[in-house]
Every structure is written in C-alpha cells, then in structure tokens.
Amino acid sequence: MTDIVPFSIAAELPRGRLAIEASAGTGKTYALAGLAARYVVEAEVPIGELLVVTFTRAAAAELRDRVRARLVDAADALASNIDPDDEVLAVLCDVPDDERARRLLLAQRAVSDFDSATITTIHGFAQQVLGSLGTSVPTDPDAVLVDDTPALIAQVATDLLTAEAVSCRHPAEDLPKHPKLVAAARLALGNPAAQLVPDADDPDLGGDAALRRRLVDTIADEVDRRRRASGSLSFDDLLVRLRAALDDPDRGAAARHALRRRYRIALIDEFQDTDPVQWAIFDAVFGARDADSHDGGPTPTLVLVGDPKQAIYAFRGADVHTYLDAAHAPGTDLCGLTTNWRSDAAYLTALELLLEGTTFGDDRIAFHHVDHAERNAATRIVDGNGDPLPTLALRLAAGDIDRHSRRPKIVLTEAARDAVHHDLAVYIRDLLEDAWLPGRTDDDRPRPLQPDDIAVLVATGAEGPEVRAALERVGVPAVMARGDNVLTSAAATQWHLLLSALARPADVRRARAVAVSWFVGWTGDELAAADDDAIADLHATLHRWADVLAGQGLATLLGTLRAETGVAARVLARSDGDRAMTDLDHVAELLQLAAPRRVSPAMLLATFEQLAGGDDEGDPEADLAARRVESESRAVQIMTTHVAKGLEFEVVCCPSLSHATPVKKAFVDPVRWDPDGHRRIVDVAGDVTWPDADTKAARTEQALAEAIGSNLRVLYVALTRARHHTALWWAPTDGAAATGLARVLFARDADGRIDPATFTGTGAVATPDGEDAVTALAPLVDRSDGRIAATLVHRPDRRPRRWAGGAAPTTAELQAATLGRRLDRRAGRWSFTAITARAHEDHDVGIDPLDDTVGDAADADELIPPDERPDGLPTGVASAHDRTSVAETPAAAGPDAGPDGLPSDGPAQLALSFDADTGSDVGDTDVDTDATPPDGDR
User: Fold this and answer.
1) Within a 13 Å sphere around the CA of 106, how many CA atoms are in the beta-carbon half?
2) DSSP category for residue 765
3) What is 486-615's CATH topology?
C-alpha cells in the first residue's frame, strides 16, 4: 500500500497537466462536475471553451447532466444569501459581493449557453473536430461511419483463404484456420498504434509465421480498399485520420492551434480506458508540442481522471500502459481522490487488510488507503439480533468435493462449480433470512435485506443461467441484468430455425428441425412418429406462414403464430419461461427494427444472420441486442464484472474469481506490452513457434504477467462494488493457483501480510487444501477483528431448504382494469409513423443517465448528432446510433403504407401483436393516417 497526494476540489484550480487517480467510490463524477463548474464560474472560461471527454454514452450523458446541475446549483447559491454546505459551492460563494455578482452572471450565462458545451465521447469529439477542420484535413466528407469491421474482416479472410487454396501455393493443411486468421486480423486492425510481429521484412522469417503475417497484411490492405470503394469509415479510421491530421507536417500545426483556441480546458474521464491513438490526439492538442506558439493565448489545461486499478477493458483496445506513461510523464502532476463515499468504514478496513501491499500488474498500479466518509463511520450490516456480520466472507470450496484422480489436491472443475453455485444460493438465502442493512440517513431505521439489494458478479454471461438456476432451487428470485447478446441466446436459435424453414418451406430437413422448435412445439417422439401426411401438413403450414410474412409483414406473422401454435404459453411454461419469452420478443423487435418493411423470408433470414454475425465481443452490453431483464420484481441481479464496473450494490457475491481461463489464455495471447519500446505488440502468429522456442517462451512469460495483472484488476473492480458486504468463493481447480485471487489469498507471510516476492511472480502460488486453507487465512482473519470470515465449503446438499420469503404467491382471480380518468386528446396524437420515426431519429443518448442499473460497460461511444455540427459543414458521417443501433440501417428508413393508408408493419404493430393476449386496452389509441416516412426516402 502506498500513499498518494490528496486532491481537493476546493484547492486552487489546476493549470497545465494534472492526473487524478480516482479509486473506486471516491466521487470521480462529483469531482469532474465540480471542476467544470469552477472553471466556468470562477476562472471565467466560457462554457463553449470547455471540453469534457469520456468513453461511454451513458457516462457522457451523466456528466452532461451533472455539469449542468452544478451550474444551476452555483447560480442558485450565488443568488441567495445562504452559505452553502457543499464544498464546491462554498468556494464559489466565499467572495466579496461584487465578485459574487459577477460569478452569478457567469453561472447564469453558462446555463443559458449550455448547449455549446462539448461533453461527449472520444469518437464524438473526433467526428466534430474532423468536421470543423473542413478541407484542412484529407478526408472524404461523404464517408459513412459504419461498424461492420468484424463482418468485413471475416468476408475478406474467407475470400483470401479460398484464393490461396485454389492457387495451390501452399498445401491446404498449412493454411491457418479461418477463425484464427480472422482473430489475428481483427487484433491487427483493432490496434492501429501497435507494432505487428513477426516483422514482414525479416529475411530469416519463414514457414507458418511468414505465411500468417503475409495473410494478415493482405487482409488489412483489402479491408482498407473495400472501405474506400464503398465510401465507408470505421471508428478506428475516425481516430487514425484525426491523429494523422494533427501530425500532418504541413497543416497539423494550424489544426492544433485552432483546437487550442477552441478549447481552453479539457477534462478526460475514465482515462485508464484510453489507447495510444486516443492519447496521441489529446497529447498533440493539449501537450507540450508547440508550447512557444500559442498565438499569445493561455496555455490549455488538461486534466486526466481515471483509476488504473480498474483498467479491465484491454479486450476493447484499452491500454493501461498508455495511462501510466501519461500520468507519470515529466510535467504532469499526480494526485488522487482519497475519500470513499460508497462503503462502510468496516468494509473499507476489511478491504485494506486484504489488499494492502498488492499491485495490479505494474508497480505503479498500487493499492492506496482511502478514508471513509463520516456518514459511513458506524454503519454496518448486522444480523437479526443486531450483532455485526462479517463485511468480507471468504468461502473456500476446498472441502469434501470430487478431486482429480492423479492430482488429489485439484478439485474437478465441474464439481467445484456445482459446489460453489449451491453454496452461493444457500448463502444468499441465509442472508435474506437474517441480515439487516443500516439506514442511509440518521433517521432511517435498519431494514431487512431484500433480493434486489444483492448482485452476483460472474466471469462470463454463460455462467449466469447456472447461478440463476441454483438460486431458484432455494426459492430466491434472480434475473440476468444486461447480460450477453440476445442474438446468441436459445431464443435466437429458435428464430433461426423458423426463418430457415420459411425461406425454404419445402426443405424436409428444415421442416423437421422447426417442428421441434418453440414455434411448432412437437416433441421428439411426435416427430419420430410423424407420417407423410403430418409432414405434408407441416410443409403446407410453413408455405402459408411464409406467404403471411412476405405479404403482411413480421408483426402479422407473429400474431398468426401466437394464435395458431400457442407459442407464448408453451415458452412461459418452461422453467426459464420469463427469460426465454423476453429473449424471443427481443429478437423479434430487432428483426422488426432492422427490416420494418414487408420482406421475403429469405431476406429476413439474411438480415438475421447479418445481425447475429455482428461484433459483440468488445462490448456486448453496448448494443440494442444486449439481453434485457426478464422481470421487474425484486430479484437478485446477475451480471458480469465488466458490466458491474461503475455500479454499486448493498451486497455483492463473487463466485467466479478463481476462474482460471483468463490466465490460461496468456499462453497463446498475441497481445502484450513491450516495456523497452513502450508500445503494444500484436503477434499475428501467436500460436506459432518463431523464431525459436526460447523466444516464444519469453513472449509467453510476458503475456502471462499481463494476464495476471488484468485478472487482479478485475478482482479489484469486483471487490469495490459493495456498500456493506462482499462474499467471494475460491476453488482449487486446475490453473486456479495462478490467478489473481490465489495471490491475494495465499501469497502471504506468517503474519498474514502480502509477501511481495511470491505475489509478483508469474508462477502458481502454493495453495493449501481443506482445513489448511482456512488455517492459512487465520492470521488475516484474526487481524480483522471480525470483519473478515473464512469458511470451508463442502459438496452440496441435494435437497436444500427453500427461502422462507420466496413462497409462491397465491393465485388471485384476474379482473379487467378500468380507466379511471378521461383521456386528454388535445395533448397530441401518436401515430404509427411517429412511433417509427422515434425509433429511427437521432438521440444524444440511448440510455437514461439516471438509471443506476447501467454501468461503465453499458454502452459504446456516441457521435455528435447532425444537428450539433457547425453550420454548413459536411454531414456525410453518420449519426450516433449508426454504430450501435440496428434501427438506423438504410433499410429502416420508414414503413410501407398498406392498402388502408396505414403502415402495414412497424414497431407499434409489433407490440400490439405481442400484447394481444395480455388484456391491454389499446382500443382508444388515436391513429394518424399519415404514413409518410418522416425523412422521406433515404
């Protein structure tokens, strides 16, 4: 544990370069909004000369709201004669009356001019800058911004491998497999600032490594050629072109000076998630370059805010080493936020005992002490008798659980998962029956813990259903909160079966496949017993459904399916019925948004396959395709740790932190950091031995060290989500001894403190077994004074007791609801056209910034909408949602009108068809018969 210089929001305003390390829960957004308000009101920086950049749309939306709220609060405080309690407002108001009046005018002007503020994402900033520079940068003003790079790479790789095989230049068995080649090409194109190895110009390079490099280079060239030919631009292209414009030897200096005159203050949020290209842009504009030629104006101020301990998005291209080099560069001041406003003092003490002495992949990424907020000094989770419960529970699945036959200290992975999930469910059940949470204010009384106070953080979305099933076995309700992509769900598979059959209704194999789908509902026995007449009837039904789809649209087909097959009742009768039905509806909505017009079954199938083939690896929660919560009732929330970043919960359970896969991947991980060259390296032949075995072993060792560091940072994120209590599980499975959790638990000396030599190595940590594991943690537990508990977990009880609060509710007779008020028909009229237009219009943000269920991983970067661009500038680059929304494809321009003048198919009709049997009163809906698409033909 190291100390860091505290940052005070009330101190003198920063000038020049400042890096603020904001540990979890220390009020990063409050500090950013406060700094922005002080620069505007105190330093007289016009709101239009303030730049605030973050890395997600939700974060940009929240920052925009928070900055505006700070300015409104400042104006109100300056206009009153009451001394404010707020630290920022107190600084602004503690001035003589004449200065106070001047600041009031500045605050009021900033509120009225707030739309001129640039508070956006990095890609939104890049788009705006390229547009504002006009002809001074060599770019195509009509280029359309798209996010089809993964699909384009896959297509080019297919064409290239086919050409290579046909040419017979290499034996087919020497060619790389398509998935490996695509993965290598995606890494190469997704890391434009990285050095590619092996070196293509190495005369000694031969064999598989040379072939792999040549193929990747060919793919990169062909992707670029096809992009230019199609007039499209990727998000990486956007940043690369801006960097090139700023570095241009002829016009770059003028562009940099123009941006310095435009922005006097730049605040960069979540800086730990930046990459080398993004930092090169900020460094060029606000850095030391051209320091003597600012046209007589003030030197711009650059404030970098982030937490390297939470740098967990390397798979998106984020590079924590870029943060470290920038934050520790000469001329940059480094300080930190040192008060945690989230968690109880007792919990923070437990975390400090567990993590003191740890680093997170680099000596400069160290655990720092944070103070507790005064309001959290005495709060603590207690049992029903009012006695304090441990704030940190270490559950060790090293007891009587099935072991490896030849390595008896290794618990079988499946047996460990079963034991951990069972113990997790029982542990949560017991907490719900006995735990009480402190009130949030002095007047609040303690309240019993509820299911929706609890979050379970898993390693991957695939683990979520298993955890949910374990909780349901003990009667605890649980939901998947913004999990993986719905297009990879079982419901998507059912849709694919149906659309495949409708595209070729005479195909026997497709007909038999859809027969056992959710839509038709035959059992395996029924299919086996079906005679020719039954199969012929099925073919006829498929032909009829295909005609309905082609002639009347998807919404009508859905109504037909529900009426004829009982698909809703059949799906809801499943054990995961709510989840399955939510996904089924969700896929239907995506299809409707992607192809709202009447389309042929073959075209809709192609649309589905295009959607399903999109990229969800980098940010699955960012898309419209992110799976939705299937129930609004009180339930335990299950999500990945990456989704949970930025969120907070009363209680957190972590069953997957000993999961070894992320560390095992390091043995073939093609991305690593070069400490000598200070740059990222992408090895496009990572699974090939080149130039020799020793060199490959050294590369593997470096990749392993980085994987362990990343694993430790994920652990830190998971441990800092809770306000009152965290439980984590450890299991000595194969490879688990090399994980970050193994180091945190067992790389300790006899006093229970971290042993630096053991902790920082890349080898496996010696992990005790059985009761010895509990004994090994005894010194740590003893020093915690009851704040930490370690418990041995055994094989599960197959008949667990159900939660007393989870009894099935009594079934009451349903009655039709009555409308108790008159409808105000003067307020406006909704039409299907208006609803469709709303689905396709540009929005600054597609997510409610006040929705605390959305974490930092919730969404991808936004762009500046067309109406925010400088007047008269080119508008060829597409708007915000073109990256993440299937609603804004060219096919989604607007619905076709039916014979009665109404749109024949659209989102409103889709909802109507899916709600047909819910009893909703939609009969009084006003319908606007003007079905003209809002933007005309596109």
Assistant:
1) 24
2) P
3) PCRA; domain 4 (1.10.486)
